[in-house]
Amino acid sequence: MQIFNQAKAAGKEVFQVIIRKPKIYSNSQGKTVDQINGNIEIYDVHFSYPSRKEIMILQGFSLSIPAGKVVALVGSSGCGKSTIISLITRFYDPIKGEILVDNHNIKDLDLKSLRRNVGLVSQEPSLFSAAQMANAHSFISQFPDHYLTEVGERGVQLSGGQKQRVAIARAILKNPPILLLDEATSALDTESEKLVQAALETAMKGRTVILIAHRLSTIVNADIIAVVENGKVADTGTHQDLLYTNEFYHNLFTMQNIDTRVEDSTEGTASIQTQISSRYLDQPATVTESYTSFTLSPKKEEPHEEREMFIFFRIWSGLKKREIVKISIGSFAAAFAGISKPVFGYFIITIGVAYFKDHPKHRVEKYSIMFSMIGFLSLFAHTLQHFFFGVIGEKAMKNLRQNLYSGILAI
């Protein structure tokens, strides 16, 4: 009963998740628009995350984004820039307000259809004819296996800039009219940022782009720059306009210009480090390749018998002295049970011959007693054998499951 009660308590939470009807459902039927131009209107949006409902991230956010224009969002950390990306892709729905794409409320659009028309490049990409446009073809061609190269778990064989260019290529592949760039260059060094920025400029042509930037140098050419403060748009304009009209933007730009001068003084060192990293990618025996071969490539083949013996001893290594005694008793009982068969056969032949010797009755009685003793001893031996081997088998299976589970957790 205790086990059933525990299962019932655990199952209650599981079933609540299973029967929960999500507000945003990918299979829900909605409007399917044949062609999206990319006009985006955000009206008076209020939003807070479900885990922190008391903290309002967006408080009356409104912004108009014309089709084919590049709009950059600038603001301090936590002001709601990335939240806008999540709302446009409909990972969440706003508490109040609405978001329109080509005058269609995104809540009324088919979710799959909406996301097919939106390309997203985030700060940490989760890993084509589009490779050329993404400025990725050149470095892909340098790999020994070209486009067949395995990038490794989470792209361990690629640098940050290379991973970003692959992510851009993947976003371009479906040719979306709307492109969302969520701090795509914030985690890169100066040299990688230039390469990725060149790829982004090519990718942004002819698309509606919402660009969230950590470095203002990447957004100076944007058509519209929106300064976000306290969850709403505080000011909009071009780069030159905001330098004179918005104090926050001016101070941020001035501060980053000072940082850029410091970075330029160390650019030579960074360039040398990048060249060394590039050489490592080309060499056959690099640290990266060694790590990848350790995690992804199959182990060097060991002799089959040695591997089996290792596995066998690992399973039995967890047994204690008490189990060794049980194994000995079970083995002795199994040996006696096995010997009883030929001994029984021997006495059958002997009792047949006893009828032709002197005093056959006495001889047959003696052999009959021996038959009975062998039968009882055989029963006792089989009982001991199955009991002790059953106990040891359960213990060995427990060790096997523990080792297997430990191996899974260690992956």
Could you explain how this protein is built, in words?
With 411 residues, the chain is of the alpha/beta class. The protein folds into two domains: 40-140 and 162-261, Rossmann fold (3-Layer(aba) Sandwich), CATH 3.40.50.300; 304-409. Helix content is 52%, strand content 14%. The chain is built from 13 helices and ten strands. The chain has a six-stranded mixed beta sheet with strand order 6-7-8-3-9-10, with helices on both faces. The two termini are 36 Å apart.
Care to give the gist of this entry?
The protein has helices at residues 2-19, 81-88, 111-116, 137-141, 160-173, 190-203, 239-245, 247-265, 267-282, 287-295, 304-316, 321-354, 360-409, and strands at 40-47, 58-65, 70-75, 96-101, 104-105, 118-121, 178-182, 208-212, 224-229, 232-237. It is an alpha/beta fold and 411 residues long.
